Amino acid sequence: QVQLVESGGGLVQTGGSLRLSCAYSGSIFRVNPMGWYRQAPGKQRELVAISTVNWTNYADSVKGRFTISRDNAQNTVYLQMNMLKPEDTAVYYCNRARMPFNPLVLDYWGQGTQVTVSS
């Protein structure tokens, strides 16, 4: 059974930090690159970070501020977000992605976790 459960979002002030977690079940996630996506109101979902076992990449808008990591033993992907800006406000999702930095059109998504950054 495929399942994605995101958590860790919240309301923070500009410059603050949050750590998101994504618990996944299903071997398809363990053996493929995983990414964090976000969708702001009125905008399309965008890929912000991707991770394989030993390689990561980021969107220019978050590079140097966000760090993705994964723990396959715990079936979890993390996103450490520092120096948050109001433009980071969005619902954040995890899911598969394609190297080097390509989003995938997928049928299944978790519920996401809301991140709101106040100015």
Short structural description:
It is built from 1 helix and 10 strands; from the N terminus they run βββαβββββββ. It has one helix at residues 27-30; strands spanning 3-7, 10-13, 18-25, 34-39, 46-51, 56-58, 66-71, 76-81, 90-96, 113-118. The strands form 2 sheets. It has a 6-stranded mixed β-sheet with strand order 2-10-9-4-5-6. It has a 4-stranded antiparallel β-sheet with strand order 1-3-8-7.
Protein described:
The structure is a single chain. The chain has 119 residues and is mostly beta strands. It is built from 1 helix and 10 strands. The strands form 2 sheets. It has a 6-stranded mixed beta sheet. A 4-stranded antiparallel beta sheet has the order 1-3-8-7. The longest helix has 4 residues, at 27-30. The protein is globular.
Helix and strand topology:
Elements: E1 3-7, E2 10-13, E3 18-25, H1 27-30, E4 34-39, E5 46-51, E6 56-58, E7 66-71, E8 76-81, E9 90-96, E10 113-118
Parallel strand pairs: 2-10
Antiparallel strand pairs: 1-3, 3-8, 4-5, 4-9, 5-6, 7-8, 9-10
Features:
119 residues, six-stranded mixed sheet, globular, 1 helix, four-stranded antiparallel sheet, mainly beta
